[in-house]
Amino acid sequence: MSAPPAGARRAGRRCWVGCVRWQHEGQPIDGASREVLAEQAVSLLDVPVNKTSTAFTKPVDPIVGQAIEAWQQLRPAQPRRLDGKTNERVNLLFSVRAHPVAKNYIDRTLIPSLCEKAGVPTADIRGNITSHRARSTIASQLYNAKEPMTLFELQAWLGHRSPTSTQHYAKITPNTLTRAYTEAGYFSRNLRTIEVLVDRDAVASGAVADGEPWQHYDLGHGYCTYSFFEQCQHRMACARCDFYTPKDSSRAQLLEAKANLQRMLVSRSRSPPTNAPPSTTARQPWAPSSTASPRSPPPPAPPLAT
């Protein structure tokens, strides 16, 4: 069973004859054209002035346009009627004996009739099946689609003056939230890798052999120069460690001002081995030979300052 088209709920009662137009590949086409049956054909619905917006045009599913055109062929000839919103005499699309259908006709008569014909209940745990719920469902599906509408696109499609009204319809489904959280990759970026600054000048000048640090692990609040940072037992007490340099210190600022720094990502396994240093994303041929090899056991953890 097809739900009543969103936007054709109350304003739809005042739609005029000829409110549907067709496009194919961006060009207008006649409703009787074979191109209407093409997969890329788009049905455009002209929605009259209503309580939430001025008159606007919105794309709808082709089956909606075909259903409206089928009704126009069967609609009895009726005299024009004065539109209370625009003060124009128009041919109302949905009218009976020159009178517009009642405000509650869709919810009280049409939807129960369609539910009975389809063999489905007229209510569920949330209440009665109504045109407003159909509008909300369609809006949520468009917002949670594989290539979803943005909030402002949905606002234009629903005909809202303010995005605040649209937010009531733009409900994020658990699947969309799960997909967004997975694609964000928070843990993979923040818990399994850490950025390290490599001082290439210190390596090239041979200062490393004299004890000059050349690896500076970025902790966010400061830098750690301990080569076996991942095996450090005191990572929660960095402020008292001799290997720690706060970012707001002059030493850290001098480090960041160096021109020959290389930024790398160091992988951190969730269950690190107890006898191996962290592995970098790329092997550097200029690394000093005096550094420990991957098979060498790490030195004892650095002492804490008293």
Automatic annotation (TrEMBL):
Organism ancestry: Bacteria, Bacillati, Actinomycetota, Actinomycetes, Kitasatosporales
Protein name, as recorded: Tyrosine-type recombinase/integrase
Sequence segments annotated as region (Disordered): 266-306
Tyr recombinase domain: residues covered: 48-173
Keywords: DNA recombination
GO MF entry, a single one: DNA binding
Gene Ontology biological-process entries: DNA integration; DNA recombination
Gene3D superfamilies per record: Intergrase catalytic core
Annotated Low complexity bias: 267-294
